[in-house]
Amino acid sequence: MIFLLKTQHSTSPFLTLKMMNKVKRRAFLAGSSALATLALGGLKAARAQGASGELNLYSGRHYESDRQIYEAFTQTTGIKINLIEGSADALMERIMSEGANSPADVFVTVDAGRLWLADRAGLFQPITQSAAPNLYRAVPSNLRHPNGHWFAVSRRSRVIVYNKSMVNPADLSTYEALADSRWRGKILVRTSGHVYNQSLVGELIDVLGESATESWARNVVANFARPPEGNDTAQIKACAAGQGSLAIANTYYLPRLVNSKDPAEREIAAKVGVFFPNQRDRGAHINISGAGVLKTAKNPQAATKFIEFLLTQKIQESFAKNGYEYPILEGISLDPVLASFGQFKSSTRSANVFGGNNEKALKLMDRAGWR
């Protein structure tokens, strides 16, 4: 059984970058809606743990299939999970406001940028290689913190989705080429305030430098089919409808449409294809979901065991088949739709580096007019 509490999602797209200063204000403690949603009894129950038989998990992932993973962990280890869900920003604010009294053992979230911010806030404790050699063997060095503060547990690529009737994929090549004037009025993408775009641009800063990336961003903005709006699914739907011919999206969004129970969504998916950029050089941008043990952990051994569990073959298969994510481990079977995208070369740029470039990326995109 999983004990579940929910923290309200943050509504500010700029919360990620302002968070460190905001939590210094004690007014947050009195008025935060994120904390107000927690029942007093639930808080006492969560803080009362600390025995080896329970684990307090703060998760910014929102996938129903993850519940099955948590139940499998309990069945395998006997360790009960107290699950607190919310947006990553709200959960990080909550952990910082709780301070040394936080009951949190593990923080799980999507995107390297959020993991980097949590680490900058001093939320994690290191997992040493001697304590968890399997983690270091399983996770490549570019997909984990250099000092073991967090580890990737799944991967996703940010790709170009194209309208099959409007674009010949042979005309596509790199992220950099999206700045070409041939794509004027063709590109669909969500706002600069979203961390997925910040991490992509953060990698480009690492590759091209800040000045060249800003020039690229200005030209991409000039190629927008419309002002950014909606999530990645909205970009794919607009691309299929011909509002633009190219969309930038994470790989797991299209399989959701292909496997939808709604015939209209399956029809939308049939109109678009997936292209992995930069296959002749560094490879397509790879982002992650990741997890780390928190400094406040009353049960760090169980917390480490949980992260190791996420990197076992069975759970990696669940990420791949139920969440449409790419696994960290090799040799894992993918969902058929995800597999149909084909094999591709992945960038090996450090997630810690491009995650750390997110603040620069957001400022750069704002200067370029990418709102």
Structure description:
The termini are far apart. α9 packs across α10 (210-222) and α10 (210-222) packs across α18 (358-367). Mean pLDDT is 89; it is low at 9-51. The protein contains 18 helices and nine strands. Strands 1, 2, 3, 4, 5, 6, 7, 8 and 9 form a nine-stranded mixed beta sheet that branches. It is an alpha/beta fold. α5 (65-77) links the parallel β2 (54-59) and β3.
Strand count: 9
Protein structure class = alpha/beta
Question: Main beta sheet, described?
Answer: 9 strands, mixed
**What's the oligomerization state?**
single chain
Low-confidence stretches: 9-51
Helix content: 40-55%
Q: Rough shape?
A: globular
The SSE string, one letter per element, is: EHHHHEHEHEHHEEHHHEHHEEHHHHH
Rounded average pLDDT = 89
How big a fraction of the residues is strand? 5-15%
* N-end to C-end Cα span: 43 Å
Number of helices: 18
Please give the radius of gyration in angstroms: 20 Å
